[in-house]
Amino acid sequence: MVMSREFRITPEVRYRIIDDEAVVVRQGEGDVLVFNQVAARVVQLVGEGLDAQRIGDLLVDEYDAPEAAIRQDVDSFLRELEDLHVIEALPTHEEDR
Amino acid sequence: MSTYQEITARAWNECRLLDAIFELTHRCNLDCFFCYNDRVQLNSALTYDEYSDLLGQLAEMAVLNLTLTGGEPLVHPDFFAIGTRARDLGFVIRLKSNGHLLRGDVARRVRDEVAPYQIDLSIHGATAKSHDRQTQRPGSFQRLLENIEEMQRLGLRMRLNCTLTAWNENEVDQIFELADRFDLLININATVAPKDDGDTSPMSVAPTSEGISRLAHVLQRRHEEVRSRNPEVTEQDGVKKEPPEVIRHCGAGSSSVTIDQWGNVLPCVQWRRVVGNVREKPIAEIWSGSVGLDEVRSLTVAAKKVAPQMEGPTDVTFFCPGIADLLTGDPLSLYPGLPTLEKDPPDDDSSDGP
Fold first, then answer.
1. Contact between A16 and B2 using a beta-carbon 8 Å cutoff
2. Does B7 sit within 8 Å of A18, measured CB to CB?
3. Which of A2, A88, B141, B257 is most buried, taking the most CB atoms under 10 A from its CB?
């Protein structure tokens, strides 16, 4: 399940939060993606080293919306960002073993 | 949600710093005839620690793009340390280089330690005769071509920059063919700038109006060829998006800033009006509080109204308020040597340049 996993920004990706939006440059692909406020916050928190659970916790505190919906959005954004190679999952402890 | 184009347009309009240019040094391992850099060394140059601190300040300001230029930036003794620090702070790095050193271990270190988004390489013609005449270094053309091949093998993204001059204006087609051979984008600029100290001798090799018209003609032809192969997508999600409107002639001092090797803050590499110094104030304070920058920002709005505008492809640069300021003292004044475009494209049988 995605929510239990840890991620990091893909090494080739550069990003800045500009006016609540995330400007993400995929250096390998040579393109620029722009993400909305919530996705930008997810990118920012992944960049700060927070795991999926903690990102969900913080966004539940920050946004006035049902917790389940927020956690579902976070899960969805993480999957989308992973599919776009903006973030990548870190090996779990079990995978390490 | 915005597009990147809209974000950059907002940066221009609302004065949000998005791009920083570090002129690391004016020293160079080539000796281009038309080089605009004033190579007189003034005070002591910024140290690595000062660059490191400045990069941290710029990252705090969410500056995205960082260009490392010179002179030749690779001859700066701390180039790799500065580049690595910039990479670690998440900048999208562009390197502007003559390419002469970019081979072997140096090229690999640039890829692995600096990880630039793109390397902009200066090329001065389609032949050794024209390129080496400009660099005043025999063999530099051949070496550049070899280095491009090597960097392509290393997976480094490159773009070619060429200044149109009287020495290469008859090679425009061949210059594009050369870029095509390497599958590289090329930007050809029609402006030969005076030296930073106002010396106009480089402008003696400025392109002729016929040469500029020929370039515009080739650009138009290539633009149409690309469009015929790839019909332009003008709609996104079924909604036609108009390009964002910008209120300024250029982003000098409104979305971008240049910092020279002594810490002087300039609106642009071409606009040498000092608006602050990072040794005296944090860059954020200069950006938000400089009277000089405020004036530059007003001037770029005014310049949009007075500058001659080119129709069609926009790869050819025309009016530059920085050059106008340097040559006439008035950033809004037309200046001697300002490239102009003839209305009718010239015949293909071109005459030889000087």
1. no
2. yes
3. B257
